[in-house]
Write a sequence for this structure.
């Protein structure tokens, strides 16, 4: 695992959440709506990672050859971005900084 600027990068086998329990789980209850192109990206997100500063996380991820797919964007509780790691895994990074 590497750490920089409040970002922890875990090997994919440790970072991907386990499948939901048999008979249901959080993943099966999550409902999303919106434009198809945006939903296609969101469906690929393996996990959401809380960071201190999304912009700094984006810089660190870009230095590590990650592709910033979306963001940073304001959300109701802060900001987020979605990044595709060099191995193809897609993660959301979120902070709780108010947008100005």
């Amino acid at each position: 695992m590497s750490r920089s600027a409040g970002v922890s990068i875990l090997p994919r086998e440790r970072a991907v959440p386990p499948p939901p329990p048999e008979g249901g789980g959080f993943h099966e209850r999550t409902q999303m709506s919106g434009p198809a192109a945006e939903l296609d990206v969101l469906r690929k997100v393996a996990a959401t990672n809380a960071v201190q500063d999304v912009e700094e996380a984006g810089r660190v991820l870009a230095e590590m050859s990650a592709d910033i797919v979306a963001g940073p964007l304001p959300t109701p509780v802060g900001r987020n971005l979605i990044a595709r790691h060099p191995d193809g895994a897609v993660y959301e990074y979120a902070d709780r900084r108010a947008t100005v």
Summary: Confidence is low (pLDDT under 50) at residues 1-16. The longest strand covers residues 67-75.
